[in-house]
Amino acid sequence: GSVVASYPYDDSPTHKLTGVYSKSADDEVFKYLAKAYASHHPIMRTGKPNCPGEEGETFPDGITNGAQWYDVEGGMQDYNYVWANCFEITLELSCCKYPPTSELPKEWENNRESLLAFIEKV
């Protein structure tokens, strides 16, 4: 897990494991939507999720192009964009894939304003 808003494409023509910016035709729209979410999240907006084992990982403005972060062939957001014209972003909301129940109220507080800002863009 991490704390970042990722946008298409997750896959790149070279399939290099990381570091390849894979720009879609709607790249600016995707960046706009990702920033709309990230800019309202208290951790995501810093671009420094500080996840255990990945303390040095950073994401400018709390967002990343999927393939630049790591290449994923056949990902859902790419599939939906290409085949159904859906504009999806992927939200990584926690360093922990399955946060304990006791942390869920805090996660809600961290994401509430981001969700509202994102919905307003729709």
Structure description:
- This protein has 122 residues and is an alpha+beta fold.
- The chain has a single domain, classed as Aminopeptidase (3-Layer(aba) Sandwich), CATH 3.40.630.10.
- 35% of the residues lie in helices and 11% in strands.
- The chain is built from four helices and three strands.
- It has helices at 27-38, 66-69, 76-84, 104-121; strands at 2-7, 63-65, 90-94.
- The chain has a three-stranded mixed sheet with strand order 2-1-3.
- The longest helix has 18 residues, at 104-121.
- The radius of gyration is 14 Å and the shape is globular.
- The model has no long low-confidence stretch (mean pLDDT 95).
- Belongs to the peptidase M14 family.
- Residues 1-122 form the Peptidase M14 domain.
- It comes from Bombycilla garrulus (Bohemian waxwing).
- Keywords: Carboxypeptidase, Hydrolase, Protease.
- InterPro entries: Peptidase_M14, Peptidase_M14_domain.
Give a brief rundown of this model.
Belongs to the peptidase M14 family. It comes from Bombycilla garrulus (Bohemian waxwing). With 122 residues, this protein is α+β, with helices and mostly antiparallel strands.
Give short descriptive properties of this protein.
122 residues; alpha+beta; Aminopeptidase; three-stranded mixed beta sheet; 4 helices; protease; Peptidase_M14; zinc ion binding
In the predicted model, the low-confidence regions spanning at least 5 consecutive residues are: none
Strand order, main sheet: write it out: 2-1-3
Tell me the major beta sheet: 3 strands, mixed
At the first level of CATH, the class is: Alpha Beta
**Helical segment count:** 4
